[in-house]
Amino acid sequence: MVFVARQEPFTCEHCGANVEPLTTGSYRNHCPKCLYSKHVDDKGPGDRESLCKGMMKPVGLDYRSNKGWMIVHRCMKCSKQIPNITACDDDLTVVEQ
């Protein structure tokens, strides 16, 4: 799997929030307010090779001993599920359990 480091600001296509890159050395791929993401990567994080481009809905939380809390995203277009590491400013209360 290829990891391409990207620190890019973006506007959330779900809630419209302006999202700035993290300054902690980690990489953000979802909105900290609504936790939605976009299905832009295909083979690995940051590759931007997905043709789907569907919105990724936060559908759950999962704890992994080696990574901590993960947000489980499901693509609303193709149904692919992808876990993503949480960020320090994420509002985890918006995830339906």
Topology:
Elements: E1 10-11, E2 18-19, E3 37-38, E4 55-64, E5 68-75, E6 81-85
Antiparallel strand pairs: 1-2, 3-4, 4-5, 5-6
Structure description:
This protein is mainly β and 97 residues long. The protein has one domain. A four-stranded antiparallel beta sheet has the order 3-4-5-6, with no helix packed on it. A hairpin with a 3-residue loop joins β4 and β5. It starts with 9 loop residues before the first strand and ends in a 12-residue tail after the last strand. The model has no long low-confidence stretch (mean pLDDT 88).
Proportion of strand residues: 25-35%
**How many helices in DSSP terms?**
0
CA gyration radius, whole angstroms? 12 Å
Unreliable stretches (pLDDT < 50, length at least 5) are none
Structural class: mainly beta
**Average of pLDDT:** 88
**Describe the biggest sheet?**
4 strands, antiparallel
Order of helices and strands: EEEEEE
Terminal Cα separation, in Å?
A: 30 Å
How many β-strand runs?
6
* Number of structural units classed as domains: 1
Q: Which of globular, elongated, flat, extended, rod-shaped describes the shape?
A: globular
What is the helix fraction of residues, given as a range? under 10%
Please list the strands of the largest sheet in the order they lie side by side.
Answer: 3-4-5-6
Question: Which key phrases capture this entry?
Answer:
mainly beta, four-stranded antiparallel sheet, 6 strands
Care to give the gist of this entry?
It is built from no helices and six strands. With 97 residues, the chain is an all-beta fold.
